[in-house]
Design brief:
Layout lengths: L5 E2 L2 H20 L1 H20 L6 H10 L10 E2 L1 H22 L3 H21 L3 H20 L2
Antiparallel strand pairs: 1-2
Length: about 150
């Protein structure tokens, strides 16, 4: 089994702040430019979910410019819940993109709004909704999966 990667929990919160700004701009601008912003955010979500938070541009900005100016984190956290949160964000972004491309703009606005709400919760309050979903899934299904593989 591979080693669980530990991360500075302030990094995903920083990224959620940037995500909040990008998604809010996509909603305010709307139309093709808003759709393009959502597409860029979808790429960021895909990188974070697929390759890890260190592969996404917001993580690079945090590690390069912000983290060196801060003291060490009080503790590290498992990278898996924030990666799952990135996958959830990617799902909402893809639904929003499909809505925009098919000219069903309410779908674009609702899906982007849900992703924005989750990012804002993390950025403003440190509450990662996708992380909590991951942990709930582990509690509900993790033990059964581990027992079944024995």
């Amino acid at each position: 089994m591979s080693e669980v990667r530990q991360i500075d929990p302030r990094g995903p919160r920083f990224g959620a702040g940037i995500t909040t700004v990008v998604l809010a701009a996509a909603l305010v601008i709307g139309g093709t430019p808003g759709l393009a912003l959502l597409g860029l955010q979808a790429v960021v979500f895909a990188l974070g979910a697929g390759l890890g938070l260190s592969a996404q541009p917001y993580g690079w900005v945090y590690r390069t410019f912000v983290r060196p100016r801060l003291g060490p984190p009080a503790e590290l956290e498992d990278e898996r819940p924030p990666r799952f949160a990135q996958a959830v964000g990617l799902g909402f972004a893809l639904v929003g993109l499909v809505g925009g491309v098919l000219d069903v703009w309410p779908v674009f606005f609702v899906a982007t709004g849900f992703a924005l709400a989750a990012a804002l919760l993390n950025a403003a309050f440190g509450f990662c909704l996708g992380c909590e979903m991951y942990l709930l899934g582990q509690r509900l299904f993790g033990r059964r999966t581990a027992e079944a593989s024995r």
